[in-house]
């Protein structure tokens, strides 16, 4: 009898571990395989030549850089780093190291022009110039990290659909497509609860049925989160 219980618990732990691996791997694979750059932006690795100037007490930095990888707009160009907008430069110490001559990092940015960037806070130099939207310091870009968080947290954020299903139509960001996704998340949540209750009523054991329900719910919640990325 004890041997049978051990095999049962062993199978349960293997099942739980397998579903956990799948839950960890699916968002990682989706984000890694997904697009890294927006349309009409440049994705390149650069080396800092010199720090040209700063405005707004250092909020805006202007660096002369050389493209050494990816798709730079030219061999030598200028980048504008906005500490209130550019993702990936929250760490001040890392930002100082990156902006020093010889610093190397990957960036994504869009071309600046006098018609769009005509405020006194913007300085334009005699080179192609990129307004940097994000800087990469690790394996993923900041936008990819945000997508990873959204996917991993989707089984938990789906719980908010109980409130959002009626409140969302009155919100400023309301769209019909987004509201339908909220409804789908609510239906998924209700279905998962109903299936778990049904299996519990038919079988006194919580496992492995409950593990299958949780695993299926988590993966379907991830699938419903993909259109919102």
Summarize the structure.
The chain is an alpha+beta fold. The chain has helices at 2-33, 92-99, 142-157, 161-167, 176-202, 209-225; strands at 42-55, 60-70, 76-82, 104-111, 129-136. The termini are far apart.
Sum up the structure in keywords:
6 helices, 229 residues, five-stranded mixed barrel, elongated, OB fold (Dihydrolipoamide Acetyltransferase, E2P)
Can you characterise this structure?
The chain has 229 residues and is an alpha+beta fold. The protein folds into two domains: 8-34 and 146-228, no CATH class; 42-138, Nucleic acid-binding proteins (OB fold (Dihydrolipoamide Acetyltransferase, E2P), Beta Barrel). Helix content is 47%, strand content 21%. The chain has six helices and five strands, in the order αβββαββαααα. It has helices at 2-33, 92-99, 142-157, 161-167, 176-202, 209-225, and strands at residues 42-55, 60-70, 76-82, 104-111, 129-136. Strands 1-2-3-5-4 form a five-stranded mixed barrel. A hairpin with a 5-residue loop joins strand 2 (60-70) and strand 3. Helix 1 packs across helix 3, helix 3 packs across helix 6 and helix 5 packs antiparallel against helix 6 (209-225). It is elongated and about 75 Å long. The N and C termini lie far apart (50 Å). The model has no long low-confidence stretch (mean pLDDT 86).
């Amino acid at each position: 009898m004890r041997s049978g219980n051990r095999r049962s618990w062993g199978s349960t732990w293997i099942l739980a571990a397998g579903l956990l691996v799948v839950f960890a791997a699916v968002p990682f694979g989706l984000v890694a395989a997904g697009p890294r750059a927006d349309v009409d932006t440049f994705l390149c690795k650069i080396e800092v030549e010199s720090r040209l100037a700063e405005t707004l007490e250092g909020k805006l930095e202007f660096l002369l850089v050389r493209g050494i990888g990816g798709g730079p707009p030219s061999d030598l160009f200028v980048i504008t780093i906005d500490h209130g907008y550019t993702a990936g430069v929250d760490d001040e110490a890392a930002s100082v190291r990156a902006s020093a001559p010889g610093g190397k990092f990957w960036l994504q940015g869009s071309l600046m022009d006098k018609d769009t960037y005509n405020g006194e806070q913007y300085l334009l130099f005699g080179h192609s110039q990129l307004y940097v939207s994000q800087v990469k310091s690790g394996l993923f870009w900041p936008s990819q990290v945000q997508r990873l968080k959204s996917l991993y947290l989707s089984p938990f954020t789906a719980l908010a659909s109980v409130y959002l299903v009626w409140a969302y139509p009155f919100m400023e960001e309301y769209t019909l497509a987004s509201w339908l996704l909220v409804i789908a998340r609510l239906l998924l949540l209700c279905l998962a609860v109903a299936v778990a209750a049904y299996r519990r009523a038919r079988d006194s054991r919580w496992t492995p049925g409950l593990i299958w329900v949780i695993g299926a719910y988590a993966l379907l919640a991830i699938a419903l989160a993909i259109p919102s990325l």
